[in-house]
Amino acid sequence: xxxxxLLSRTGMVALLAFAMLLPFASVSAQDLPVLxxxxxxxxxxxxxxxxFRVEVHAEALPEDxxxxxxxxxxAESWAFGPEDAxxxxxxxxxxSVTAPAPGEYxxxxxxxxxxxxxxxxVREPSSERVARNIILFVADGMSVPTITAAxxxxxxxxxxxxxxxxxxxxxxxxxxxxxxxDSIMADSANTASALNTGHIGSVNATGSYSDTSPDSLxxxxxxxxxxxxxxxxxxxxxxxxxxxxxxxxxxxxxxxGRNRGNGNRNAYLVQALESGYVDVLMGGGARRLIPQTVEGxxxxxxxxxxxxxxxxxxxxxTSATEMNAALAAGxxxxxxxxxxxxxxxxxLDRNVYTDNLGEFTDQxxxxxxxxxxxxxxxxxxxxxxxxxxxxxVDKQLHPLDQERALSDLIEFDQAIAAAAAWAAENAPDTxxxxxxxxGHGYDVYGTVNLDEFTxxxxxxxxxxxxxxxxxxxxxxxxxxxxxxxxxxxxASRVFxxxxxxxxxxxxxxxxSPVPRVPAIDDGNGVYVDNPEDDPNGIPVSGVxxxxxxxxxxxxxxxxxxxxxxxxxxxVGLYHQSEIFFIMASALGLNPAxxx
Length: 595
Description:
Layout: E1 34-37, E2 43-44, E3 50-56, E4 74-80, E5 87-97, E6 103-111, E7 114-122, E8 133-139, H1 144-153, E9 156-157, E10 160-161, E11 172-177, H2 188-197, H3 225-233, E12 236-244, H4 248-251, H5 262-275, E13 280-284, H6 305-311, E14 315-317, H7 320-329, E15 335-338, H8 347-351, H9 366-377, E16 384-390, H10 392-397, H11 402-426, E17 430-435, E18 439-440, E19 442-449, H12 450-455, H13 459-464, E20 466-467, E21 493-499, E22 505-507, E23 519-521, E24 527-529, E25 538-540, E26 553-554, E27 558-563, E28 572-575, H14 578-587
Parallel strand pairs: 2-7, 8-16, 8-17, 11-28, 12-13, 12-16, 13-15, 14-15
Antiparallel strand pairs: 1-3, 3-5, 4-5, 6-7, 9-10, 11-27, 17-27, 18-26, 19-20, 19-21, 22-25, 23-24
Helix pairs in contact: 1-11, 7-9, 9-11
């Protein structure tokens, strides 16, 4: 085995040289699969910190295994795969290394007569900082059809929208693909990590490249934008979400782990505290902050993270009232806002179907949290990076709940408008980018006459009430109070909207007074139509495996909207990992030079 190509010294921990000679003359390449992480075509900023692992799937390495590197690797071994036929693995890993200068770095691993070669691309850094602040808005699961539907629901006449969205005013627009390194499809972990690191990872992985080790938190890490701006510029970093803030998208701002499951999510909240650079964290997720001995806890240890965050200097707020009081009092430069044990309730339930809130009736909206985070973060003269997520566009499209999803998309749009207004008045050197981590298969294909639909006594009659082409008259969702949100429940002609995948279910095209549960387990692991969800709807056959309870993500490119200094760089079609480099360029980040 040999490594060729030099990685020269940087001011941080560095790889000095590779001269690894490992003859495996008696072993075929097929018997020695090799994994090199980061992967081929990985892209970096010069001087950005990352971990480097070479993994060889074999019982042992030869005795003459040798390497000349600026820092000693850690040798590790394990077995992975099924218990009855595990695959042994040997690994050398170098932690916190850097590639110092722009160019291509080639790593070759040769086993017998076969060579595994990966090329790392170190990008040319920007020489000028044009933005002091960056706000990245992420509507989880948003796609062009959802934006179109949200706009049309706010009124359309003569073919033209009556009330445009803030996203419509973007100075520059692009399109981003979302596939992961191991799958054509994507989830929120690897996509949000692509936005925050510039690296294309595996499904479920956050801020790291997935290896086969038994520890899902030791996989090779890559540095996040939050880490870079904090250590290079002393900028503040904030995260706002309507989800549990250990969820995949918010955690991508700081976290590192291979599996976004429960254990890693608990670790992510510890990582946020220990990172030292997450200054504002707002969303749901209280159950992950309390010791496992407390009822409702999802932790697997006895740590009281409320106490630990408070000891670290965070102002802790647990309701909209407390948040507003803390802001009015002033003086908070770090804030932890925890407004629900799990994901926060969606806009439609907070404002219309309030019986669904239970005891959590004092939750702030996304716009409120966004402006609160800006108020805290903008005290830092060095600038700030804030990621804002509307999580429940995705979380409501999974159960095929179009009205809840579109309402949260409109709320997302209003948060963008509020941030843009703040920037125009207070900080025109703020770059605002709005995008999605991935899409869903939602679209509108006509409209439904609800009077005819509800009067019909059979499926044929209900289907006759669905109008397409020139029969699809405009929907008549009212907005009597003028808040920009359709009053879905008061319309008589509504969207014929659908998601192009899902389990067996029924569809009646009407807003549900409770969050939808389209399919239920029949007791044998098979998901069937839920008879209590849309009981008078049209049967829709599932197109997923029988164990799927909801819809899934789709392949479509997602839109990218931008305003402010550096916004012109979003124009074009690219992988979403490019957005990291667009933000880094606007900030003039050059880690190798210490910026």
